[in-house]
# Entry
Amino acid sequence: MNTAALLAAGCVLREHEPLARHTTFQLGGPCPILMDCATPGQLVTAITELHRTGRDHVLIGGGSNLLVADAGVPMPVLRYLTTQPLIQQAGDVLDVAASTLLDDLCAYAAGCGLAGIEALNCIPGTLGGAIAGNAGAFGKQIGDVVESVTLLECDGRTRHADRAELRFAYRSSSLHETGEIVLAARLHLQSGDAGQLTQQRAECIHIRTHKHPDWRTTPTAGSFFRNVAPTSAAGRRQAAGWFLEQAGTLAMRINGARPYEKHANIIIRDGPCSAQDVLDLSRQMAAAVAVKFGLQLEREVRLLGAFA
Ligand SMILES: Cc1cc2nc3c(=O)[nH]c(=O)nc-3n(C[C@H](O)[C@H](O)[C@H](O)COP(=O)(O)OP(=O)(O)OC[C@H]3O[C@@H](n4cnc5c(N)ncnc54)[C@H](O)[C@@H]3O)c2cc1C
# Structure
């Protein structure tokens, strides 16, 4: 691999890097090389170079929806993330690099009086990860405001795709099937009141602080299972946490892995444990729900690498 070209583009390369350092669960073994890309240009250079040398790769963002295997990942990992928001504004329209943190984007939008993503305040991870999984909260999701995206294909070519092509659905998009990378996105917001949006942001932070663990101090990947699909067209999704709690899963634990006491659908680490422990615990939790309700919960957290 032409590492000089990657370094010249500004990519940061780390060999044998433990992925535990780059996931909010703080779990996961090493990858042969981690290629840190902050800008669209750096990511295009990295993908082009990997394609030229015929190497497979895995892409991650903030690692906040991932459980990475203890043995790690046997291929290069690209991390597309920046803590310097890359946002261009033209009225109500924002062009944003997908490496930008979603919460930085929410703070920017609130500060300049743009409404439409205030329900997404405090969701960890990047805009790219949010678009791939159609992240959302309080009945709103990022797909609602995406107008179009620039996609990066595995040979380094880019192309434009409009919203319809992404087939946004509950916590999913077509990107989970195609594996294409979101390089950047155009979001269409509405003008709102900056003071009110900033107040809403503060309320959202308050609610989340009381309901959810703080991933900076308590390792987790948020909700482990998807909420349960409605049984009729008129119905709403039902919280997976309710079924888990009724099935008695709050008392379960494998080493340091256990459900969060205030939210049965969130698995946290409060002591040493492996990624395999977390997966085994989740399987026990799902089995308890299956026995009590005859319901198969579906995992929301994505697995990376080989598990038993
Ligand atoms: C405390 C906590 C609270 C959470 N609350 C919520 C919530 O309220 N709502 C919610 O929806 N989620 C929530 N999550 C889950 C998580 O934050 C979201 O799923 C987030 O959008 C994942 O983004 P990421 O950048 O971390 O993606 P990663 O976890 O790094 O990756 C997830 C998937 O997205 C893909 N991906 C990442 N970047 C790109 C890109 N640029 N292009 C294409 N694919 C990409 C990866 O390949 C992978 O398949 C929470 C997580 C935590 C830890």
Observations:
- The domain at 3-80 is CATH 3.30.43.10 (Uridine Diphospho-n-acetylenolpyruvylglucosamine Reductase; domain 2).
- The two ends are 32 Å apart (CA to CA).
